[in-house]
Design brief:
Blueprint lengths: L6 H8 L3 H8 L7 H13 L6 H8 L4 E6 L5 H16 L3 E6 L4 H9 L8 E4 L10 H5 L4 E4 L9 E5 L1 H14 L5 E5 L5 H16 L9 E3 L4 H12 L9 E4 L2 H13 L9 E3 L6 H4 L6 E3 L2 H17 L7 E4 L2 E3 L8
Parallel strand pairs: 1-2, 1-3, 3-4, 4-5, 5-11, 6-7, 6-8, 8-9
Antiparallel strand pairs: 10-12
Length: about 325
């Protein structure tokens, strides 16, 4: 026999109608505040839990939010998920994860096979360069909020860190430490995140009147292995053009760069500076520790979820682009002495 408490139990305990309890729990205007307080107190005393499946049938909501993201195993995205989860659960929503493994083909397949009836909205950090695969969802009025990796020409809300100024700050820090030949191991081209960090790097060089060479920019994936491979190519340049500092698009690539440099007996900091972007815990655990730009990952997740919930509850909520500041963390890898 089920021990599940229902609104009928609350109504029986208070000797009021089931419809009054239902309206009180939904905070409708036609129930007095005194009655609402009594219903909420009794619901708490009886440990009442809303039946979201039943509510969904009644109001067309599933109380499920989909999250599409490249990875769940790295620090940044796991922290973003924690922020999303807290905001979702605080508001009575469940989350459903879809992982693309940074594959556009997999992202297309996930989006094309989504069951719209089982999701109220979608949070997405894309690995795609266009949003054609998302247009059917938007046409069906499914709210979408992008975080971290976005598609700029889609009319949706977006929550990101300040990629441009973070990259400008990272490159300027290297310059202030006396490095004059600075390379950039970037992410895949044409992603807004990649392009903004590249622009910040380039503008910092221009501001300080430092030289720039095409060979110093290498675009590839976001993994540690890509960082090591890119750095091997930089170290293979002739001595007169070989860079003496590297700005990596993320900390995983910065760690890969450090591995490549150490394998060749080059002193990190003294002979070649390295700085990353994320503040992944690994950047403080390796030796030497790696300077980085810290991203507000938890806040990005929490705010993006709260923004999606606004779109779900207030259909006329205007689209917003929220940019959160990043901050410099100086460690051993950019210390020349």
């Amino acid at each position: 026999m089920s021990n599940l408490v229902t609104i009928k139990d609350i109504a029986r305990a208070l000797n009021i109608s089931v419809s009054t309890v239902s309206r009180a729990l939904r905070d409708t205007h036609d129930v007095s505040q005194e009655t609402k307080n009594k219903v909420e107190a009794m619901a708490s005393a009886l440990h009442y839990k809303p039946n979201f499946n039943a509510m969904g049938l009644a109001n067309g909501k599933s109380h499920n939010i989909g999250i599409v993201l490249p990875f769940i195993t790295n620090y940044y995205f796991s922290t973003v998920i924690t922020g999303i989860q807290e905001a979702a659960y605080n508001n009575g929503y469940n989350i459903v994860l879809y992982v693309t493994n940074d594959s556009p083909e997999r992202e297309f397949a996930i989006i094309n096979n989504l069951s719209i009836a089982n999701l109220d909205g979608l949070l997405i950090s894309t690995c795609c360069k266009t949003g054609d695969h998302l247009q059917p969802l938007l046409n069906n009025r499914i709210p979408i909020v992008f975080f971290d990796r976005i598609i700029e020409n889609l009319e949706t809300s977006k929550v990101v860190q300040d990629d441009y100024n973070g990259a400008f700050q990272a490159t300027s820090h290297l310059i202030e430490q006396g490095y004059t030949k600075i390379a950039h191991i970037a992410g895949p081209r044409n992603l807004p995140l990649t392009e903004k960090r590249l622009a910040g790097y380039m503008d910092a060089l221009k501001k300080h009147c430092l030289p720039f060479r095409n060979e110093w920019i290498i675009s590839s994936g976001f993994s540690q292995e890509c960082g090591e491979y890119d750095t091997v190519q930089l170290l293979a340049l002739s001595k007169n053009v070989r860079p003496n500092a590297i700005f990596a698009v993320n900390d995983r690539k910065a760690v890969g760069a450090a591995i490549a440099v150490k394998k060749r007996g080059i002193l990190i900091g003294k002979e070649i500076g390295i700085i990353g972007f994320t503040n992944d815990p690994i950047s403080s655990l390796v030796t030497p520790s790696i300077s980085t730009i810290a991203e507000p990952a938890f806040d990005i997740g929490f705010i993006s979820c709260e923004l999606l919930l606004k779109h779900l509850t207030k259909k006329q909520t205007p689209f917003q682009e929220i940019i959160l500041p990043a901050s410099l963390i100086v460690r051993q890898s950019t210390q020349r002495t």
